[in-house]
Hints:
Elements: E1 2-3, H1 18-28, E2 40-45, E3 59-64, H2 73-81, E4 87-93, H3 105-116, H4 120-134, H5 139-153, E5 158-165, E6 170-173
Amino acid sequence: xxxxxxxxxxxxxxxxxxxxxxxxxxxxxxxxxxxxxxxxxxxxxxxxxxxxxxxxxxxxxxxxxxxxxxxxxxxxxxxxxxxxxxxxxxxxxxxxxxxxxxxxxxxxxxxxxxxxxxxxxxxxxxxxxxxxxxxxxxxxxxxxxxxxxxxxxxxxxxxxxxxxxxxxxxxxxxxxx
Length: 177
């Protein structure tokens, strides 16, 4: 992974794009500008430990478990078609709760029983029906595969995978651009 500490660390093909500005705002402390229209779609995990430093109106943000957008494609299409967005970033992160969901089965079921008032049977059926759809094996492999898939699906849109490290709260480029 490539750290981006200054604007000079941003690869040339990304410079002067909303993807570069995301890195500059979040990692480099670039002053926040005023935007009248979103330039970027950020797809990232719903994890509450991750907050990005962004100006208002700069980006649409789609947050889902594990950053899994497989069931959000209509929303993405809407943002591209109606919002006019031509750049998408997929952000994975370390210590993601959607990795190895099977190991969280007992806690998940117990939590729904205790917090939502569900029966154990209903909670277990819910887990068994949905966990396989949302579980990811590896955060980096997942975000790379999703970026490849979306670049193929939306050839006129630049889709870039990034990684958020919890330890320093910075965004990283996963592979050379």
